Amino acid sequence: MIYKNKRELKGKINGLQIIMAVLDRAIGTEDTNLDVLELFKKMIESKSQTPEDGGLLEFIEMYLEGFTAIRIDKEGVKNLFAYRRTGEGPHLCFAGHVDVVPAGEGWNTDPFVATVKDGYIYGRGAQDMKSGVSAFTQALREAENFNGTLSLLLTSDEEGPAKFGTVEVLKYLKEHDLLPDAVVVAEPTCETTFGDAIKVGRRGSINGILELNGKQGHAAYPEKAINPIHQIASVLPNIAGAFLDEGDRYFAPSQLVITDIRSGIETTNVSPGKLKMMFNVRNSTATSVESIEAFISHHCAGLDYTLVLDQSAVPFVTDADTRIVQILTDSIYEICSISPKHSTAGGTSDARFIAAYGIDVIEFGVKNDTIHAPNERTSIAEVQDLTKVFSTLIKRF
Q1: What is the pLDDT of residue 211?
Q2: Assigned CATH for 205-313
Q3: Which residue of 100, 267, 286, 377 could cross-link 125, Cys pair, CB 3.0 to 4.6 Å?
């Protein structure tokens, strides 16, 4: 095999090192198949900071025996799609990312050493989302008698710009008629108890920049100036924190959240000539760029302003009556004795790219209470139960 560059060769070497370490630990045992916890620990100890994969994709490719692996690497981003077709039935895919955010400071343990303490495993990516990747990788490896296609989609660029990750894989799958019927993204979704929440959709995100033009002047002669701060003062009560729709069974009301206001030249005797205000709306399907534009126009009528709106994420929802939602809900109840709520709360994920292709996509994973924080951790029980849920889902699907 010929490698195009040093980075590609390094990824191959890292993957082989992981495999050799795993095999070393398995020597002398009757079963060389890894326990999901051992797999999880290996993933944490592979330093895969965006956009690096720490050799994990190479390892997973070899770990999933019998799967056909396709690498779709681009611009330094590592992507893997692996599938196994054993019948004419539906195509079920599990998706996620192996990359993690920088560890940062404040850790009590080495963030890239899987540390077991009091029933928890600590390490960067423990919740977001190497627990989920470990669980569905193990479930896929152990799956039997599935009448259809099982697959896995992984990227090393979800925590970064996300321009050359899942987006590029989906393009490839569409071109080669490999798009799945349903996808489970194993992001951490649970709130207080494992099994209590499934993400059936995500809110969109619309960013706004409003610039209000006035006329700079001396503070002693306010009648000769047009102060944009005074102008916005009467507008703010009507727009700051305003709910732009009423929400529905899936979405909370869309709310306009002001994130920054700045004006003036930091002196006390000059009234400013311009004001800049930034805001964000995590929107439901009932609010759009056009409706926000009309809302601002109504409340800023008569003012000299410019408005720039940018939709960085589009809202989506997978109906509760779809097959994947129903079967995952039943699988969670079977393992956890909990009926999960169907939520769209939180930020965005790569699920938004999948939904754009008309695919039924949902998210389910461990509890979300330490992601991106120092001392990120998840419990041993959650990792084991998540694997059981995914195995049950595969059997039922």
Answers
A1: 98
A2: 3.30.70.360
A3: 100
Q: How far apart are CA 151 and CA 93, in angstroms?
A: 5
Domain spanning 6-202+315-396, CATH architecture: 3-Layer(aba) Sandwich (3.40)
309 touches 289 (CB < 8 A): yes
Per-residue pLDDT tens digits for 351-376: 999 999 999 999 999 999 999 999 99
Do 394 and 334 meet the contact criterion of CB atoms below 8 Å apart?
Answer: no
Quick one: 45 exposed, middle or buried, by C-beta within 10 A (0-12, 13-18, 19+)? middle
Domain-by-domain residue ranges, the chain? 6-202+315-396, 205-313
- Distance CA(28)–CA(69), nearest Å, equals 29
Task: Write down the pLDDT at residue 395.
Answer: 97
DSSP symbols for 190-206: BSSSTTSEEE-EE--EE
Question: Given a cut of 60, is residue 212 above it in pLDDT?
Answer: yes
pLDDT at 1: 40
The pTM is what? 0.85
Burial of 347 (0-12, 13-18, 19+ CB in 10 A): exposed
Task: Kindly list the catalytic residues.
Answer: 99, 158
